[in-house]
Amino acid sequence: MATILVVEDSITEAQFICNSLREVGLNTITVNTAEAAKVIVSQKKIDAILLDVVLPGESGFGFCRKLKSEDKTSHIPIIICSSKNGKIDQTWGLKQGASAYLTKPLDREELLQTVQRFIQS
């Protein structure tokens, strides 16, 4: 069973994402900062990361860039989920190494299809 790390500081958004993923049989781990996510990634096998951009401390963009620059984590698909919905934000997110960029409010079906696409490849 795949494990998805959800890095989201909004409790409401985190619950929506985790409930959606669990309904289709995926395991989830939720943290609210990039710093906490670093600890999880170093300790557990993670199949994909859903990453908010606006987080306390380090931004999602910076965290994505760091994960993609490290050999141990560069293979993990990162799906940015953000309320930053400008074309420039999406382009910047993909340039940081994200596999996909979803904008909030999230559509459940789009979320699930995107996650499934990356954990099956």
UniProtKB/TrEMBL annotation:
Residues 3-119 form the Response regulatory domain. The keyword Phosphoprotein applies. This is Response regulator. InterPro entries: Bact_response_regulator, CheY-like_superfamily, Sig_transdc_resp-reg_receiver. Coiled coil: none annotated. The modification 4-aspartylphosphate is found at residue 52. GO terms for biological process: phosphorelay signal transduction system.
